[in-house]
Design brief:
Number of domains: 2
Low-confidence stretches: 154-225, 281-285, 317-323
EC number: 7.1.1.-
Structural class: mainly alpha
GO cellular component, one term: chloroplast thylakoid membrane
Distance between the termini: 45 Å
Oligomer: single chain
Pfam families: Proton_antipo_C (PF01010), Proton_antipo_M (PF00361)
Number of strands: 2
Keywords: Chloroplast, Membrane, NAD, NADP, Plastid, Plastoquinone, Quinone, Thylakoid, Translocase, Transmembrane, Transmembrane helix, Transport
InterPro entries: NADH_UbQ_OxRdtase_chlpt_su5_C, ND/Mrp_TM, NU5C-like
Strand content: under 5%
Length: about 375
Protein backbone atom coordinates (compact mmCIF):
# COMPACT_ATOMS: atom_id res chain seq x y z
CA UNK A 1 0.00 0.00 0.00
CA UNK A 2 1.07 3.59 -0.62
CA UNK A 3 -1.02 5.21 2.09
CA UNK A 4 0.91 5.19 5.37
CA UNK A 5 -2.21 4.86 7.54
CA UNK A 6 -3.60 2.10 5.34
CA UNK A 7 -0.32 0.20 5.63
CA UNK A 8 -0.47 0.43 9.41
CA UNK A 9 -4.12 -0.62 9.40
CA UNK A 10 -3.34 -3.73 7.37
CA UNK A 11 -0.46 -4.56 9.70
CA UNK A 12 -3.02 -4.75 12.49
CA UNK A 13 -4.64 -7.76 10.82
CA UNK A 14 -1.60 -9.98 11.35
CA UNK A 15 -1.38 -8.96 15.00
CA UNK A 16 -5.07 -9.76 15.49
CA UNK A 17 -4.25 -13.10 13.89
CA UNK A 18 -1.66 -13.74 16.62
CA UNK A 19 -4.27 -12.98 19.27
CA UNK A 20 -6.86 -15.28 17.68
CA UNK A 21 -4.21 -17.99 17.32
CA UNK A 22 -3.37 -17.73 21.02
CA UNK A 23 -7.05 -17.87 21.97
CA UNK A 24 -7.60 -20.90 19.75
CA UNK A 25 -4.67 -22.69 21.36
CA UNK A 26 -6.02 -21.95 24.83
CA UNK A 27 -3.19 -19.56 25.69
CA UNK A 28 -5.48 -16.83 26.98
CA UNK A 29 -2.81 -15.03 28.95
CA UNK A 30 -0.57 -14.70 25.87
CA UNK A 31 -3.47 -13.34 23.82
CA UNK A 32 -4.28 -10.66 26.38
CA UNK A 33 -0.60 -9.87 26.86
CA UNK A 34 -0.15 -9.30 23.13
CA UNK A 35 -3.31 -7.19 23.05
CA UNK A 36 -1.79 -4.87 25.67
CA UNK A 37 1.68 -4.61 24.13
CA UNK A 38 0.34 -4.26 20.60
CA UNK A 39 -2.05 -1.51 21.70
CA UNK A 40 0.76 0.75 22.91
CA UNK A 41 3.06 0.03 19.97
CA UNK A 42 0.35 0.54 17.36
CA UNK A 43 -0.90 3.70 19.08
CA UNK A 44 2.66 5.02 18.90
CA UNK A 45 2.86 4.18 15.19
CA UNK A 46 -0.48 5.76 14.32
CA UNK A 47 0.30 8.92 16.26
CA UNK A 48 3.71 9.00 14.59
CA UNK A 49 2.07 8.70 11.18
CA UNK A 50 -0.23 11.57 12.15
CA UNK A 51 2.81 13.67 12.98
CA UNK A 52 4.32 12.78 9.60
CA UNK A 53 1.10 13.69 7.78
CA UNK A 54 0.88 16.95 9.71
CA UNK A 55 4.42 17.87 8.64
CA UNK A 56 3.84 16.87 5.00
CA UNK A 57 0.73 19.07 4.77
CA UNK A 58 2.95 22.13 5.08
CA UNK A 59 4.53 21.12 1.77
CA UNK A 60 1.75 19.53 -0.30
CA UNK A 61 -1.27 21.16 1.34
CA UNK A 62 -4.33 19.53 2.80
CA UNK A 63 -4.74 16.55 0.49
CA UNK A 64 -4.84 13.01 1.93
CA UNK A 65 -3.85 11.57 -1.45
CA UNK A 66 -0.56 13.45 -1.23
CA UNK A 67 0.16 14.03 2.45
CA UNK A 68 -0.36 10.33 3.28
CA UNK A 69 1.39 8.96 0.20
CA UNK A 70 4.68 7.29 1.13
CA UNK A 71 5.86 7.61 -2.48
CA UNK A 72 6.13 11.37 -1.96
CA UNK A 73 7.87 11.04 1.40
CA UNK A 74 11.41 10.00 2.20
CA UNK A 75 14.29 11.77 3.87
CA UNK A 76 12.22 12.91 6.83
CA UNK A 77 14.89 11.86 9.32
CA UNK A 78 16.59 15.26 9.40
CA UNK A 79 13.29 17.16 9.35
CA UNK A 80 11.31 15.29 12.04
CA UNK A 81 13.95 13.55 14.21
CA UNK A 82 11.75 13.05 17.29
CA UNK A 83 8.92 11.56 15.24
CA UNK A 84 11.41 9.38 13.40
CA UNK A 85 12.92 8.00 16.60
CA UNK A 86 9.55 7.21 18.15
CA UNK A 87 8.29 5.64 14.91
CA UNK A 88 11.42 3.50 14.70
CA UNK A 89 10.91 2.23 18.25
CA UNK A 90 7.30 1.35 17.48
CA UNK A 91 8.39 -0.43 14.30
CA UNK A 92 11.06 -2.45 16.09
CA UNK A 93 8.57 -3.36 18.80
CA UNK A 94 6.03 -4.64 16.29
CA UNK A 95 8.80 -6.61 14.55
CA UNK A 96 9.54 -8.39 17.82
CA UNK A 97 12.98 -6.98 18.59
CA UNK A 98 13.99 -7.18 22.29
CA UNK A 99 13.63 -5.64 24.78
CA UNK A 100 10.64 -3.75 23.37
CA UNK A 101 7.07 -4.57 24.36
CA UNK A 102 5.78 -6.75 21.53
CA UNK A 103 8.82 -9.03 21.68
CA UNK A 104 7.73 -10.60 24.97
CA UNK A 105 4.14 -11.28 23.94
CA UNK A 106 4.82 -12.33 20.36
CA UNK A 107 7.65 -14.65 21.36
CA UNK A 108 5.37 -16.30 23.90
CA UNK A 109 2.71 -16.93 21.25
CA UNK A 110 5.29 -18.31 18.83
CA UNK A 111 6.63 -20.72 21.44
CA UNK A 112 3.13 -21.85 22.40
CA UNK A 113 2.31 -22.51 18.75
CA UNK A 114 5.02 -25.21 18.63
CA UNK A 115 3.43 -26.92 21.61
CA UNK A 116 0.04 -26.92 19.92
CA UNK A 117 0.71 -27.65 16.23
CA UNK A 118 3.83 -27.45 14.02
CA UNK A 119 1.65 -26.34 11.08
CA UNK A 120 0.31 -23.35 12.97
CA UNK A 121 3.83 -22.66 14.22
CA UNK A 122 5.25 -22.47 10.68
CA UNK A 123 2.48 -20.06 9.66
CA UNK A 124 3.08 -17.93 12.75
CA UNK A 125 6.85 -17.78 12.22
CA UNK A 126 6.42 -16.90 8.53
CA UNK A 127 4.03 -14.14 9.54
CA UNK A 128 6.66 -12.79 11.93
CA UNK A 129 9.09 -12.41 9.02
CA UNK A 130 6.44 -10.73 6.86
CA UNK A 131 5.58 -8.36 9.70
CA UNK A 132 9.20 -7.24 9.97
CA UNK A 133 9.36 -6.84 6.18
CA UNK A 134 6.33 -4.63 5.62
CA UNK A 135 6.82 -2.59 8.79
CA UNK A 136 10.35 -1.66 7.78
CA UNK A 137 9.10 -0.99 4.28
CA UNK A 138 6.86 1.70 5.76
CA UNK A 139 9.72 3.08 7.85
CA UNK A 140 12.25 3.16 5.01
CA UNK A 141 9.89 4.73 2.48
CA UNK A 142 8.91 7.41 4.98
CA UNK A 143 12.15 8.40 6.69
CA UNK A 144 15.13 7.18 4.66
CA UNK A 145 16.45 8.51 1.36
CA UNK A 146 15.44 11.95 0.17
CA UNK A 147 12.21 13.94 0.01
CA UNK A 148 10.68 12.63 -3.20
CA UNK A 149 8.04 15.32 -3.54
CA UNK A 150 10.79 17.71 -4.69
CA UNK A 151 12.18 15.35 -7.33
CA UNK A 152 9.18 14.09 -9.24
CA UNK A 153 5.76 15.19 -10.36
CA UNK A 154 2.85 13.73 -8.52
CA UNK A 155 1.18 12.61 -11.76
CA UNK A 156 4.34 10.93 -13.02
CA UNK A 157 3.45 11.66 -16.64
CA UNK A 158 5.56 14.73 -17.30
CA UNK A 159 9.08 15.19 -16.09
CA UNK A 160 9.81 18.70 -17.35
CA UNK A 161 6.98 20.81 -15.97
CA UNK A 162 6.71 22.05 -12.44
CA UNK A 163 3.71 20.67 -10.56
CA UNK A 164 2.38 23.27 -8.14
CA UNK A 165 0.15 22.14 -5.31
CA UNK A 166 -2.27 24.52 -3.66
CA UNK A 167 -3.36 24.54 -0.04
CA UNK A 168 -6.26 22.17 -0.70
CA UNK A 169 -4.27 19.70 -2.79
CA UNK A 170 -5.39 20.94 -6.21
CA UNK A 171 -3.03 21.74 -9.03
CA UNK A 172 -2.27 25.40 -9.59
CA UNK A 173 -2.35 27.16 -12.88
CA UNK A 174 0.01 25.81 -15.50
CA UNK A 175 1.32 29.34 -16.11
CA UNK A 176 4.75 29.06 -14.58
CA UNK A 177 8.21 30.34 -15.15
CA UNK A 178 9.63 28.58 -18.17
CA UNK A 179 13.15 29.07 -16.83
CA UNK A 180 12.39 27.05 -13.71
CA UNK A 181 14.54 23.95 -13.56
CA UNK A 182 13.25 21.03 -11.51
CA UNK A 183 15.78 19.80 -8.97
CA UNK A 184 17.34 16.58 -10.16
CA UNK A 185 20.21 14.44 -9.04
CA UNK A 186 23.25 14.05 -11.25
CA UNK A 187 26.77 12.88 -10.69
CA UNK A 188 28.07 16.39 -10.08
CA UNK A 189 25.43 17.56 -7.62
CA UNK A 190 24.64 14.43 -5.67
CA UNK A 191 27.38 14.88 -3.09
CA UNK A 192 26.64 18.53 -2.29
CA UNK A 193 22.86 18.82 -2.65
CA UNK A 194 21.67 16.05 -0.40
CA UNK A 195 23.67 17.24 2.56
CA UNK A 196 22.57 20.82 2.26
CA UNK A 197 20.45 21.71 5.30
CA UNK A 198 17.60 23.83 3.98
CA UNK A 199 14.41 23.80 5.95
CA UNK A 200 12.34 26.91 5.41
CA UNK A 201 11.54 28.60 2.13
CA UNK A 202 12.82 32.10 1.56
CA UNK A 203 12.72 34.70 -1.17
CA UNK A 204 14.98 32.58 -3.39
CA UNK A 205 12.50 29.72 -3.29
CA UNK A 206 9.70 32.16 -4.08
CA UNK A 207 11.62 33.47 -7.09
CA UNK A 208 12.29 29.94 -8.36
CA UNK A 209 8.56 29.20 -8.13
CA UNK A 210 7.84 31.88 -10.70
CA UNK A 211 6.66 34.40 -8.15
CA UNK A 212 4.08 32.06 -6.68
CA UNK A 213 3.88 32.22 -2.89
CA UNK A 214 4.68 29.13 -0.88
CA UNK A 215 2.07 27.36 1.20
CA UNK A 216 1.00 29.14 4.35
CA UNK A 217 -1.44 27.19 6.52
CA UNK A 218 -2.79 29.82 8.87
CA UNK A 219 -5.37 27.57 10.47
CA UNK A 220 -2.71 25.21 11.80
CA UNK A 221 -0.70 27.82 13.69
CA UNK A 222 1.88 28.02 10.92
CA UNK A 223 2.65 31.66 10.24
CA UNK A 224 5.72 31.08 8.04
CA UNK A 225 5.84 29.38 4.65
CA UNK A 226 7.74 26.12 4.48
CA UNK A 227 9.29 24.26 1.57
CA UNK A 228 10.30 21.30 3.76
CA UNK A 229 8.46 19.39 6.50
CA UNK A 230 9.08 20.41 10.07
CA UNK A 231 8.66 18.77 13.46
CA UNK A 232 5.26 18.80 15.14
CA UNK A 233 4.61 20.95 18.17
CA UNK A 234 4.65 19.83 21.80
CA UNK A 235 0.94 19.02 21.76
CA UNK A 236 1.68 16.08 19.50
CA UNK A 237 5.18 15.24 20.70
CA UNK A 238 4.28 14.81 24.37
CA UNK A 239 1.86 11.88 23.74
CA UNK A 240 4.48 10.38 21.41
CA UNK A 241 7.12 10.38 24.13
CA UNK A 242 4.63 9.02 26.64
CA UNK A 243 3.78 6.11 24.33
CA UNK A 244 7.51 5.53 23.80
CA UNK A 245 7.88 4.93 27.55
CA UNK A 246 5.04 2.41 27.53
CA UNK A 247 6.49 0.70 24.46
CA UNK A 248 9.82 0.35 26.23
CA UNK A 249 8.60 -0.87 29.61
CA UNK A 250 5.11 -2.39 29.32
CA UNK A 251 6.71 -5.75 28.49
CA UNK A 252 7.71 -6.00 32.16
CA UNK A 253 4.13 -7.10 32.87
CA UNK A 254 4.81 -10.49 31.31
CA UNK A 255 8.39 -11.13 32.42
CA UNK A 256 8.33 -14.06 34.87
CA UNK A 257 9.59 -13.39 38.39
CA UNK A 258 10.68 -16.38 40.45
CA UNK A 259 8.67 -16.62 43.67
CA UNK A 260 8.87 -19.71 45.90
CA UNK A 261 10.07 -22.03 43.18
CA UNK A 262 7.61 -21.01 40.48
CA UNK A 263 7.34 -18.15 38.07
CA UNK A 264 4.64 -15.57 38.56
CA UNK A 265 4.50 -12.36 36.57
CA UNK A 266 2.40 -9.26 37.15
CA UNK A 267 -0.05 -10.14 34.40
CA UNK A 268 -0.60 -13.62 35.83
CA UNK A 269 -1.47 -12.08 39.19
CA UNK A 270 -4.15 -10.03 37.48
CA UNK A 271 -5.48 -13.11 35.69
CA UNK A 272 -5.21 -15.53 38.63
CA UNK A 273 -8.79 -16.88 38.31
CA UNK A 274 -8.44 -17.55 34.57
CA UNK A 275 -7.22 -20.83 33.07
CA UNK A 276 -4.37 -21.20 30.62
CA UNK A 277 -4.82 -24.60 29.02
CA UNK A 278 -1.32 -24.87 27.58
CA UNK A 279 0.40 -24.13 30.90
CA UNK A 280 -1.99 -25.35 33.56
CA UNK A 281 0.26 -28.34 34.35
CA UNK A 282 3.46 -26.33 34.42
CA UNK A 283 4.46 -25.48 37.98
CA UNK A 284 8.21 -25.30 37.58
CA UNK A 285 10.17 -22.14 36.97
CA UNK A 286 10.83 -21.04 33.43
CA UNK A 287 13.77 -22.61 31.64
CA UNK A 288 15.65 -19.51 30.59
CA UNK A 289 17.91 -21.53 28.29
CA UNK A 290 14.90 -22.66 26.26
CA UNK A 291 13.55 -19.14 26.29
CA UNK A 292 16.78 -17.67 24.96
CA UNK A 293 17.08 -20.38 22.31
CA UNK A 294 13.56 -19.74 21.03
CA UNK A 295 14.05 -15.98 21.26
CA UNK A 296 17.21 -16.10 19.15
CA UNK A 297 15.34 -18.01 16.44
CA UNK A 298 12.37 -15.61 16.40
CA UNK A 299 14.59 -12.52 16.42
CA UNK A 300 16.65 -14.01 13.56
CA UNK A 301 13.50 -14.38 11.45
CA UNK A 302 12.56 -10.77 12.24
CA UNK A 303 16.01 -9.59 11.19
CA UNK A 304 15.68 -11.54 7.93
CA UNK A 305 12.52 -9.58 7.16
CA UNK A 306 14.24 -6.33 8.09
CA UNK A 307 17.22 -7.16 5.87
CA UNK A 308 14.98 -8.02 2.93
CA UNK A 309 13.07 -4.75 3.32
CA UNK A 310 16.35 -2.83 3.54
CA UNK A 311 17.65 -4.59 0.44
CA UNK A 312 14.55 -3.69 -1.61
CA UNK A 313 13.56 -0.28 -0.24
CA UNK A 314 16.57 1.38 1.36
CA UNK A 315 18.22 3.92 -0.99
CA UNK A 316 21.57 2.15 -1.09
CA UNK A 317 22.76 4.40 -3.93
CA UNK A 318 23.09 7.26 -1.45
CA UNK A 319 25.67 5.33 0.56
CA UNK A 320 27.38 3.11 -2.01
CA UNK A 321 28.06 4.57 -5.43
CA UNK A 322 29.15 1.22 -6.92
CA UNK A 323 27.21 -1.49 -5.18
CA UNK A 324 28.27 -4.72 -6.94
CA UNK A 325 25.42 -6.82 -5.61
CA UNK A 326 22.78 -4.44 -6.99
CA UNK A 327 24.64 -4.15 -10.29
CA UNK A 328 24.73 -7.94 -10.64
CA UNK A 329 20.95 -8.02 -10.43
CA UNK A 330 20.59 -5.17 -12.89
CA UNK A 331 22.79 -6.91 -15.49
CA UNK A 332 20.92 -10.20 -15.53
CA UNK A 333 19.71 -9.64 -19.10
CA UNK A 334 16.84 -11.92 -20.18
CA UNK A 335 16.49 -13.28 -16.65
CA UNK A 336 15.89 -9.73 -15.49
CA UNK A 337 12.64 -9.52 -17.49
CA UNK A 338 11.38 -12.77 -16.03
CA UNK A 339 12.30 -11.60 -12.54
CA UNK A 340 10.52 -8.27 -13.13
CA UNK A 341 7.37 -10.10 -14.17
CA UNK A 342 7.45 -12.15 -10.97
CA UNK A 343 8.00 -9.04 -8.85
CA UNK A 344 5.20 -7.15 -10.63
CA UNK A 345 2.84 -10.08 -10.15
CA UNK A 346 3.62 -10.25 -6.44
CA UNK A 347 3.25 -6.49 -6.14
CA UNK A 348 -0.15 -6.49 -7.88
CA UNK A 349 -1.28 -9.41 -5.72
CA UNK A 350 -0.23 -7.60 -2.55
CA UNK A 351 -1.49 -4.15 -3.56
CA UNK A 352 -4.92 -5.55 -4.49
CA UNK A 353 -5.13 -7.42 -1.18
CA UNK A 354 -4.84 -10.87 -2.77
CA UNK A 355 -7.87 -9.98 -4.94
CA UNK A 356 -10.18 -10.90 -2.07
CA UNK A 357 -12.37 -7.85 -2.64
CA UNK A 358 -12.63 -8.59 -6.37
CA UNK A 359 -13.49 -12.23 -5.67
CA UNK A 360 -16.11 -11.19 -3.11
CA UNK A 361 -17.64 -8.64 -5.48
CA UNK A 362 -17.74 -11.06 -8.41
CA UNK A 363 -18.80 -14.20 -6.59
CA UNK A 364 -21.06 -13.06 -3.78
CA UNK A 365 -22.29 -9.57 -4.65
CA UNK A 366 -22.68 -10.30 -8.35
CA UNK A 367 -24.23 -13.70 -7.71
CA UNK A 368 -26.76 -12.31 -5.24
CA UNK A 369 -27.73 -9.55 -7.65
CA UNK A 370 -28.25 -12.01 -10.51
CA UNK A 371 -30.28 -14.24 -8.21
CA UNK A 372 -32.35 -11.22 -7.18
CA UNK A 373 -32.97 -10.30 -10.81
CA UNK A 374 -34.00 -13.87 -11.56
CA UNK A 375 -36.37 -13.87 -8.59
CA UNK A 376 -37.79 -10.51 -9.67
CA UNK A 377 -38.32 -11.81 -13.21
CA UNK A 378 -40.04 -14.91 -11.86
CA UNK A 379 -42.34 -12.79 -9.69
Amino acid sequence: QKDIKRGLAYSTMSQLGYMMLALGMGSYRSALFHLITHAYSKALLFLGSGSVIHSMETVVGYSPDKSQNMVLMGGLTKHVPITKTSFLLGTLSLCGIPPLACFWSKDEILNDSWLYSPIFAIIAWATAGLTAFYMFRIYLLTFEGHLNVHFQNYSGNQNTSFYCISLWGKGCSKRINKNFRLLRMNNNESASFFWKKTYRSDENVRKRNGGQPSINIVGFDNQKPFSYPYESDNTMLFPLLLLVLFTLFVGILGIPLNQKGRDLDILSKWLAPSINLLHQKSKDSTDWYEFLKDAIFSVSIAYCGIFLASFLYKPIYSSFKNFDLINSFVKLGPKRKRWDKIINTLYDWSYNRAYIDAFYTTSFTGGIRELSQLTHFFD
